[in-house]
Every structure is written in C-alpha cells, then in structure tokens.
Amino acid sequence: MRFLLEVNMDDEALAKDPVGELGRILRYWGGNLRHYPMTAGDGSEIYDSEYREVGRWRIEQGGGDEREGAA
Known about the structure:
alpha+beta
C-alpha cells in the first residue's frame, strides 16, 4: 500500500507562510490519522487554517517505488 499526501501550495495561507502552514497541516493530520483504519481507500480532504480545502491524503493499494531511477 501507499500513503499519498497532496497539498496545493498556491493556496493563500500556504503562499503567505508555506513553512508554518504546511507544518500545521502535517501536525494536525498526523494526529488525526488514528481515527482511520489505514486501509486501501481511506483518505480525507485537507484544509488550511482558514478551513479552505487545499489537498487530500489517501491510501492506495499497490506498492513499488515509481520514482524515476529508484532501485
């Protein structure tokens, strides 16, 4: 399985303070993961500090490393 996190860095709050806002998002959603069974298909929208949707996390079935040049 694979855990994927996508955050739109063009959002107003992220553009103004990318390090602070992304850190807040990671802390919040990292702590919130315990509410999910963490199986393929799980996921949720991600919101910034102004409660605007800025991305999504999800768990997908599959694996392998699709990065270019990965061993």
